[in-house]
Design brief:
The protein is 52% helix and 16% strand. Strands 1-2-3-5-4 form a 5-stranded mixed β-sheet. It has a single domain, classed as 2-Layer Sandwich (Heat Shock Protein 90), CATH 3.30.565.10. The protein starts with 16 loop residues before the first helix and ends with a helix. The chain has 8 helices and 5 strands. It has helices at 17-25, 29-32, 38-75, 85-103, 114-128, 146-167, 203-215, 240-251; strands spanning 132-140, 171-179, 182-189, 219-224, 230-237. By secondary structure, it is an alpha+beta fold.
Protein backbone atom coordinates (compact mmCIF):
# COMPACT_ATOMS: atom_id res chain seq x y z
CA UNK A 1 0.00 0.00 0.00
CA UNK A 2 1.34 3.40 -0.97
CA UNK A 3 1.96 5.81 1.83
CA UNK A 4 0.87 9.38 1.37
CA UNK A 5 3.84 11.76 1.39
CA UNK A 6 2.68 15.37 1.88
CA UNK A 7 4.54 18.06 -0.04
CA UNK A 8 7.71 18.56 2.01
CA UNK A 9 5.88 17.47 5.12
CA UNK A 10 7.23 18.02 8.58
CA UNK A 11 6.39 16.96 12.14
CA UNK A 12 3.90 19.85 12.08
CA UNK A 13 1.86 18.34 9.21
CA UNK A 14 1.51 18.95 5.46
CA UNK A 15 2.92 22.11 3.96
CA UNK A 16 0.66 25.07 4.68
CA UNK A 17 1.42 28.66 5.53
CA UNK A 18 0.16 28.06 9.08
CA UNK A 19 2.46 25.06 9.58
CA UNK A 20 5.45 26.83 8.04
CA UNK A 21 5.08 29.77 10.43
CA UNK A 22 4.18 27.50 13.33
CA UNK A 23 7.45 25.63 12.95
CA UNK A 24 9.25 28.75 14.22
CA UNK A 25 7.64 28.47 17.62
CA UNK A 26 8.62 24.81 17.83
CA UNK A 27 12.29 25.74 18.09
CA UNK A 28 13.82 25.15 21.54
CA UNK A 29 13.63 28.22 23.75
CA UNK A 30 17.39 28.60 23.90
CA UNK A 31 17.51 28.76 20.09
CA UNK A 32 14.64 31.25 19.87
CA UNK A 33 16.42 33.48 22.42
CA UNK A 34 19.12 34.20 19.82
CA UNK A 35 18.96 35.42 16.25
CA UNK A 36 18.60 32.48 13.83
CA UNK A 37 21.66 31.50 11.88
CA UNK A 38 21.95 32.20 8.16
CA UNK A 39 21.10 28.59 7.23
CA UNK A 40 18.05 28.71 9.53
CA UNK A 41 16.89 32.01 8.00
CA UNK A 42 17.27 30.61 4.49
CA UNK A 43 15.41 27.43 5.41
CA UNK A 44 12.56 29.37 7.03
CA UNK A 45 12.30 31.81 4.12
CA UNK A 46 12.17 28.95 1.61
CA UNK A 47 9.50 27.11 3.62
CA UNK A 48 7.34 30.22 3.94
CA UNK A 49 7.71 31.04 0.23
CA UNK A 50 6.75 27.49 -0.75
CA UNK A 51 3.78 27.53 1.62
CA UNK A 52 2.62 30.85 0.13
CA UNK A 53 2.83 29.42 -3.39
CA UNK A 54 0.84 26.35 -2.30
CA UNK A 55 -1.80 28.53 -0.61
CA UNK A 56 -2.14 30.70 -3.73
CA UNK A 57 -2.55 27.58 -5.87
CA UNK A 58 -5.27 26.25 -3.55
CA UNK A 59 -7.09 29.59 -3.65
CA UNK A 60 -6.88 29.80 -7.46
CA UNK A 61 -8.24 26.27 -7.77
CA UNK A 62 -11.11 27.00 -5.36
CA UNK A 63 -12.08 30.21 -7.20
CA UNK A 64 -11.95 28.42 -10.55
CA UNK A 65 -14.04 25.46 -9.38
CA UNK A 66 -16.72 27.39 -7.54
CA UNK A 67 -17.32 31.10 -8.15
CA UNK A 68 -16.03 31.17 -11.73
CA UNK A 69 -18.23 28.24 -12.78
CA UNK A 70 -21.26 29.72 -11.04
CA UNK A 71 -20.72 33.17 -12.55
CA UNK A 72 -20.32 31.67 -16.02
CA UNK A 73 -23.54 29.72 -15.54
CA UNK A 74 -25.42 32.87 -14.49
CA UNK A 75 -23.88 35.00 -17.27
CA UNK A 76 -24.94 32.40 -19.86
CA UNK A 77 -28.50 32.39 -18.57
CA UNK A 78 -28.14 28.83 -17.39
CA UNK A 79 -27.20 27.78 -20.96
CA UNK A 80 -30.94 27.71 -21.72
CA UNK A 81 -32.83 29.22 -24.65
CA UNK A 82 -35.15 30.87 -22.11
CA UNK A 83 -33.33 31.64 -18.81
CA UNK A 84 -35.02 30.37 -15.68
CA UNK A 85 -34.87 33.21 -13.13
CA UNK A 86 -35.51 30.88 -10.19
CA UNK A 87 -32.67 28.58 -11.29
CA UNK A 88 -30.25 31.50 -11.68
CA UNK A 89 -31.24 32.80 -8.23
CA UNK A 90 -30.56 29.35 -6.76
CA UNK A 91 -27.06 29.28 -8.26
CA UNK A 92 -26.35 32.86 -7.10
CA UNK A 93 -27.53 32.06 -3.57
CA UNK A 94 -25.36 28.95 -3.49
CA UNK A 95 -22.34 30.95 -4.64
CA UNK A 96 -22.93 33.55 -1.92
CA UNK A 97 -23.23 30.86 0.75
CA UNK A 98 -20.04 29.13 -0.39
CA UNK A 99 -18.08 32.38 -0.56
CA UNK A 100 -19.27 33.42 2.91
CA UNK A 101 -18.16 30.08 4.37
CA UNK A 102 -14.77 30.45 2.70
CA UNK A 103 -14.25 34.03 3.92
CA UNK A 104 -15.23 33.01 7.45
CA UNK A 105 -12.87 30.02 7.24
CA UNK A 106 -15.74 27.65 7.95
CA UNK A 107 -16.02 24.23 6.42
CA UNK A 108 -13.13 24.45 4.00
CA UNK A 109 -12.71 20.70 4.35
CA UNK A 110 -16.41 20.24 3.62
CA UNK A 111 -19.07 18.90 5.95
CA UNK A 112 -20.10 15.30 6.18
CA UNK A 113 -18.42 12.07 5.17
CA UNK A 114 -16.72 11.42 1.85
CA UNK A 115 -19.80 9.51 0.68
CA UNK A 116 -22.16 12.34 1.67
CA UNK A 117 -20.03 14.98 -0.02
CA UNK A 118 -19.81 12.99 -3.26
CA UNK A 119 -23.56 12.55 -3.28
CA UNK A 120 -24.00 16.28 -2.68
CA UNK A 121 -21.79 17.47 -5.55
CA UNK A 122 -23.38 14.98 -7.94
CA UNK A 123 -26.87 16.17 -6.96
CA UNK A 124 -25.78 19.78 -7.58
CA UNK A 125 -24.16 18.92 -10.91
CA UNK A 126 -27.19 16.96 -12.09
CA UNK A 127 -29.28 20.13 -11.77
CA UNK A 128 -27.10 21.80 -14.42
CA UNK A 129 -26.12 18.86 -16.63
CA UNK A 130 -28.21 17.52 -19.52
CA UNK A 131 -26.64 14.06 -19.28
CA UNK A 132 -27.21 11.33 -16.69
CA UNK A 133 -24.78 11.04 -13.76
CA UNK A 134 -24.59 7.77 -11.83
CA UNK A 135 -22.75 7.16 -8.55
CA UNK A 136 -21.47 3.69 -7.70
CA UNK A 137 -19.80 2.73 -4.41
CA UNK A 138 -17.51 -0.19 -3.72
CA UNK A 139 -16.02 -0.91 -0.29
CA UNK A 140 -15.90 2.19 1.93
CA UNK A 141 -14.01 1.70 5.20
CA UNK A 142 -13.97 5.39 6.23
CA UNK A 143 -10.17 5.73 6.41
CA UNK A 144 -10.00 8.74 4.04
CA UNK A 145 -11.82 11.86 5.24
CA UNK A 146 -10.67 15.33 6.32
CA UNK A 147 -8.41 17.39 4.02
CA UNK A 148 -7.55 14.43 1.78
CA UNK A 149 -11.22 13.69 1.30
CA UNK A 150 -12.00 17.36 0.65
CA UNK A 151 -9.45 17.59 -2.15
CA UNK A 152 -10.75 14.37 -3.66
CA UNK A 153 -14.31 15.70 -3.66
CA UNK A 154 -13.22 19.05 -5.14
CA UNK A 155 -11.26 17.33 -7.94
CA UNK A 156 -14.29 15.12 -8.65
CA UNK A 157 -16.50 18.19 -8.91
CA UNK A 158 -14.13 19.78 -11.43
CA UNK A 159 -14.00 16.54 -13.46
CA UNK A 160 -17.82 16.55 -13.64
CA UNK A 161 -17.80 20.23 -14.62
CA UNK A 162 -15.46 19.38 -17.51
CA UNK A 163 -17.80 16.61 -18.63
CA UNK A 164 -20.74 19.03 -18.67
CA UNK A 165 -18.87 21.81 -20.47
CA UNK A 166 -16.72 19.91 -22.95
CA UNK A 167 -17.52 16.19 -23.33
CA UNK A 168 -20.93 16.26 -25.05
CA UNK A 169 -21.65 13.08 -23.11
CA UNK A 170 -24.94 11.26 -22.61
CA UNK A 171 -23.76 9.65 -19.38
CA UNK A 172 -21.11 9.99 -16.69
CA UNK A 173 -20.39 7.36 -14.05
CA UNK A 174 -18.61 8.15 -10.78
CA UNK A 175 -17.30 5.17 -8.84
CA UNK A 176 -15.63 5.29 -5.43
CA UNK A 177 -13.97 2.83 -3.08
CA UNK A 178 -11.89 3.40 0.05
CA UNK A 179 -9.68 0.69 1.54
CA UNK A 180 -6.95 1.06 4.18
CA UNK A 181 -6.18 4.72 3.64
CA UNK A 182 -6.38 4.71 -0.16
CA UNK A 183 -9.45 6.31 -1.72
CA UNK A 184 -10.06 5.95 -5.44
CA UNK A 185 -12.66 7.90 -7.40
CA UNK A 186 -13.09 7.25 -11.12
CA UNK A 187 -15.07 9.66 -13.32
CA UNK A 188 -15.87 8.08 -16.69
CA UNK A 189 -17.93 9.60 -19.50
CA UNK A 190 -19.05 8.48 -22.97
CA UNK A 191 -18.32 11.84 -24.59
CA UNK A 192 -16.17 12.92 -27.51
CA UNK A 193 -12.87 12.44 -25.70
CA UNK A 194 -9.57 14.11 -26.58
CA UNK A 195 -5.87 13.36 -27.00
CA UNK A 196 -4.12 14.20 -23.69
CA UNK A 197 -0.75 14.32 -25.48
CA UNK A 198 -1.70 17.16 -27.80
CA UNK A 199 -4.68 18.90 -26.19
CA UNK A 200 -4.01 22.13 -24.34
CA UNK A 201 -4.77 21.64 -20.65
CA UNK A 202 -6.70 24.50 -19.14
CA UNK A 203 -6.50 25.53 -15.52
CA UNK A 204 -9.32 23.12 -14.68
CA UNK A 205 -7.36 20.00 -15.55
CA UNK A 206 -3.94 21.42 -14.70
CA UNK A 207 -4.63 23.09 -11.35
CA UNK A 208 -8.04 21.99 -10.10
CA UNK A 209 -7.55 18.28 -10.78
CA UNK A 210 -3.91 17.27 -11.36
CA UNK A 211 -2.36 20.06 -9.26
CA UNK A 212 -4.87 19.79 -6.43
CA UNK A 213 -4.36 16.03 -6.05
CA UNK A 214 -0.58 16.42 -6.16
CA UNK A 215 -0.59 19.13 -3.48
CA UNK A 216 -2.46 16.83 -1.09
CA UNK A 217 -0.14 13.88 -1.78
CA UNK A 218 -2.50 12.13 -4.18
CA UNK A 219 -2.52 11.55 -7.92
CA UNK A 220 -4.77 12.15 -10.92
CA UNK A 221 -4.55 9.98 -14.04
CA UNK A 222 -6.27 11.14 -17.22
CA UNK A 223 -7.04 8.60 -19.94
CA UNK A 224 -8.86 9.71 -23.06
CA UNK A 225 -9.03 9.12 -26.80
CA UNK A 226 -10.92 11.07 -29.44
CA UNK A 227 -14.34 9.49 -29.91
CA UNK A 228 -13.94 7.12 -26.94
CA UNK A 229 -14.79 9.28 -23.94
CA UNK A 230 -12.62 10.17 -20.96
CA UNK A 231 -11.68 8.42 -17.74
CA UNK A 232 -10.16 10.37 -14.85
CA UNK A 233 -8.82 8.34 -11.92
CA UNK A 234 -8.22 10.16 -8.64
CA UNK A 235 -6.34 8.60 -5.73
CA UNK A 236 -5.96 10.08 -2.25
CA UNK A 237 -3.88 8.63 0.58
CA UNK A 238 -3.59 9.14 4.31
CA UNK A 239 -0.46 8.41 6.36
CA UNK A 240 -0.19 4.88 7.76
CA UNK A 241 0.21 6.06 11.41
CA UNK A 242 -3.20 7.78 11.18
CA UNK A 243 -4.79 4.51 10.09
CA UNK A 244 -3.08 2.61 12.91
CA UNK A 245 -4.32 5.18 15.46
CA UNK A 246 -7.88 4.95 14.13
CA UNK A 247 -7.79 1.14 14.14
CA UNK A 248 -6.56 1.07 17.74
CA UNK A 249 -9.20 3.62 18.79
CA UNK A 250 -11.98 1.51 17.26
CA UNK A 251 -10.63 -1.63 18.92
CA UNK A 252 -10.56 0.12 22.31
Amino acid sequence: MSRRVPLRSSPHGPLTLRNAVGSLTALPARRRAHAPSAPDRARIAAAVAEALDAERARTRAWLHDTLLQQLEFIAAGGYADVPDAADLMRVAAGAATELRAYVEDAGRDGGGSLVERLRSIIADEQLEAAHEIRLVFGEIDGTVEGPEGADLVAATREALTNVRKHARATQAVVSCHVVMGVATVVVRDDGIGFDPRTARRGSGLRESIVGRMARSGGVAIIDSKPGEGTCITLKAHVPLPWIVDQTEAKAA
